[in-house]
Amino acid sequence: MLKKAFTTTAAFTIMTTFAARSAPVHAQAQKNHHDGNKFKNPWPSAAPISLLSIPKLFMTMNLGAAEKTITPATMPQKVDIDWNLIKKDDKEPSDDITATWMGHACVLLQLRGFNVLFDPIFSDRCSPVQFGGPKRYTEPPCQLSELPAIDAVVISHNQRQHHQAAGQAVSRLQILRSSWQQRVFSLTNRLDSAGNERVIELDWWDNVGIVKDSTKEQIRLTCTPAQHQSGRTPFDKDKTLWSSWCVEALDKEGNATKGRVFFGGDTGYRSVPASTKPESQYDYEYLDTLPHCPAFTEIGDKIGPFDLALIPIGAYSPRWFMSTVHCSPEDAVDLHRDVKSKRSIAIHWGTFVLTDEPVQDPPHRLEAAMKQRGLNAADFGVLPLGGSFTTSTSSSALND
């Protein structure tokens, strides 16, 4: 079976939390993202990059120039976490949905009394060792040990700034919460020990339900498509699946009436050819002529509209190399429209220098792209590190 998954942890002494896979609620017409040997992006928008282009990348990509743009004025604002907000009593679930940005793609999502942690990274570097590799230029807004009890840790793919960091976070959570029963939904990439009965693996459009016995509240997590890749070495490229995720809060009958959230993880949207003129790489008139990933419209049609979406906006330059796997802010705005999100928060920026765009460019481009598309810029924006966004059926508010 083709698999992709996430990790959950459940408070064992405080409550009994039950997780169970069910028949896919949102059926996929065909499983065309595996060729018998590895996973693939089955869309024209994911034109593969030739290995012969790697030397060009190293000759033209200037990470040093991007690092020089890091100043107090260009770094993301950092605020104190509102602990009263995120440590509220989960025994009295409300209709509010709260998201707190922890840096890069890491977000703490809270809905109906559940605490869901996406792509956790609290380490200094996103590399196999902590003495080399990309180093974060913004500190995490808190320590992992300070977070409320986590019900689910959701992982988008196995690249180091997402999966290894998540594995470290899960190990740390196991130490910090020794009384918890751990349930692990893995990428078959040794996030937890092989053969562990707590491992549940999901393919695109598979889903799992989680129920809290203490409140009878329940959520459904659905593994959904993304346009990306996986692998850490030349020998394991695309051997594990990548994904976006949808979280639905369910009523007692199991209907998704209590809120929907989309997590984009790490994804591209369209393929920008190497022959593209520099002035056209971010121009909608030109971009609209290129094929874009149809998966997000499908997600919006099947599971949306969403009350909130968490969408990547950074690590996108040079476009000829990065466009198939990383959204530019212009791509992110189109993705926001495709999934039919009422409000969106930018992720995957402001933490590591992974590509050569100036560090302050993603949020500036995002605001401009929203206006260029004729959308309200307030509907898709950035949070300060440690900042929270709360939305409900009646109102939305930034907590910073």
From TrEMBL:
Pfam families: Lactamase_B_2 (PF12706). One of its GO terms (cellular component) is cytoplasm. Residues 115-269, 297-349 form the Metallo-beta-lactamase domain. It comes from the Eukaryota. SUPFAM superfamilies: Metallo-hydrolase/oxidoreductase. GO terms for molecular function: N-acylphosphatidylethanolamine-specific phospholipase D activity; zinc ion binding. InterPro entries: Metallo-B-lactamas, NAPE-PLD, RibonucZ/Hydroxyglut_hydro. Residues 1-27 form the signal peptide. Keywords: Signal. One of its GO terms (biological process) is N-acylethanolamine metabolic process. This is Metallo-beta-lactamase domain-containing protein. The gene is PARPA_14039.1 scaffold 47516.
